[in-house]
Amino acid sequence: MLCLHFGNHILYENADLDHTADVQLHSWGDDLKEAFEQVGMAMFGYMTELDTVEIKEKHEIEAQSEDLDGLLFRFLDELLFLFSAEDFIIPKKLIITNFNTETFYIKCSCYGETFDLSKHPQGTEVKAITYSAMQIVQNPNPNQNQNKVDIFVIIDI
Which residues form the Archease domain (predicted)? Predict the structure, then answer.
């Protein structure tokens, strides 16, 4: 799945990669903030078709850890908790409003609506986030003069 934002249209930048027992999500962005937002949307894209989701409400999440991998894990875990425990909220858009790489802290606004089986196709249930094969690759192609960030994370389904 690929995502770019053009006015009111959102195109997501991520892909699902086959993995033996689980699913590996691959997302990317021009910086860490964008790559984190995209991997969050990749996870929700696996749970339902995001083009059926409307922006009707806003929720805030926060995550903090001791390192960048831990922050990615906590961020995704908080997003999963938002769906699992907070009235099944499914976001259409994530905007990280505070991303501190010194204190490893994120605050994120989640825009979407309550998941409704009569409106949203049920995809695959995400049970947990894992550290297995987790990678945050900054500037994966240094010869191309890009500051791109790639993220790989395996989710338990």
Answer: 17-157
End-to-end CA distance of the chain: 18
What are the residue ranges of helices labelled H in the chain?
A: 32-47, 68-85
Q: Are 75 and 105 in contact (CB under 8 A)?
A: no
CB neighbours of 88 closer than 8 A, spacing ≥ 6?
114, 115
Q: How far apart are CA 39 and CA 27, in angstroms?
A: 5
| Closest alpha carbon to 37 in 61, 16, 53 | 61
Distance CA 92, CA 135 (A): 25
With a cut of 90, say whether residue 55 has pLDDT above it: yes
Handedness of CA 51, 53, 16, 8 (dihedral sign): positive
Its pTM stands at 0.84
Amino acid at 150: D
- Per-residue pLDDT of 30-43, as tens digits, reads 999 999 999 999 99
pLDDT-derived band at 16 (thresholds 50, 70, 90) equals low
Domains of the chain: 5-156 (3.55.10.10)
Residue 46's nearest CA partner among 133, 155, 144, 140 is 155
- Report residue 21: phi and psi, to 5°: -105, -25
